[in-house]
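pasting for ref
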Amino acid sequence: MDLDTLRMLFAPAGRAALDDAVRILADGADPVAAASALRRSHSPELAAAALTQASLRRRAEVKFGADAAVMYFTPHGLEQATRPEVAAHRAARIGAAGIGAAGPGVTGPGPTGVGPAGVPEAPEGPRVLDVCCGIGGDLLALARAGCPVDAIDLDPLTVEIARANAAALGLSSLVTVRTADAAAAEPGGYDLLFADPARRGARGRTFDPRAYSPSWQVVLDLVARAPAACLKTAPGIPYEFIPEGAEAEWVSYRGEVKEAAIWTGMGTGGRRATLLPSGATLTDSGAEADVGPVSRYLYEPDGAAVRAHLVAEVAALVSGHLVDPRIAYITGDRLVPTPWAACYEVTDVMPFSLKRLRAALRERGVGAVTIKKRGSAVDVERLRKDLRLSGGASVVIVLTRIEERPFVLLCQPVTSQKG
């Protein structure tokens, strides 16, 4: 989709075509039949644009819920957009940080009320510069938290979509969006810089911050000139790229690590893991975990705690110890429900041997397995085929390493309280 095609959808004829496309898809028409039906009332170009946008809105419902019905998307923009729950979490942290017109560390008076679409009527939040804003997932959350946002992006199409999304959700009074190069931005005139550099190049997704766009060095230069900053990054960001004195926060949504955020100028530091939607958070306490034999229960820490190197803190919560100093599996004799780890009861522990494992599963009549692994070189899909399962029972197979030797644990789920 190009800019002219998008603007066609904003016109009355385009809105009518989009409404028709949404209705036709809701009735269950396949793409070919839907396109034919739309072309009976609209030009082929407008019909194609409306059908594409209606399809994107249907896909976006999983991420954006009811908001998706009035928003605009590109395939790449939808894929890269922050989940609203994660964006709202960050916006709430920014709004509660006490930065802004009232001065660092001083919280000004809050909003006097809430208007349509959840917009505060008297916003007192910090002024935010959002660089690389994409289709606007984060700027929408910031505006809903009462933060006036100036957003920029290098792509004119993306800028137009972000602007349209702010208008569709009644947030235009708090948001401005323009086409500009992030490298030329002046963050010193704002209370906080929010940066979400692109992590996808011509060859697909990149995991090297030096290949981000803008580059990591450009982003760090912006941070150095900002009173405070929040940088959205991939969860696998190497620790050496985290600026000294910054806080690195890994966020997990319903058990899946979504992203990391690096915070500066907020009076915090160190490492943090956060679970959503509960909002539970865990920080570095200096805990050190002991190592010992496999006990009755096995705990699998949430990925956010693992990424944040807070496995020892989780071990302390469940009064457990590690099965190996380099593997993020915790074991203990006590059953301690926690949102920070899935728990399994261990029924068997044995050195890894395909023949022995197959015999044990056959003896127990196991026909369904969930296979988990950490520190194991075993090909999970190949193992699943080689087991030749049959039976009505199910079991969790945990492949791991203990003192350099491959082991397998047979377990049963006990509890899962993901945040």
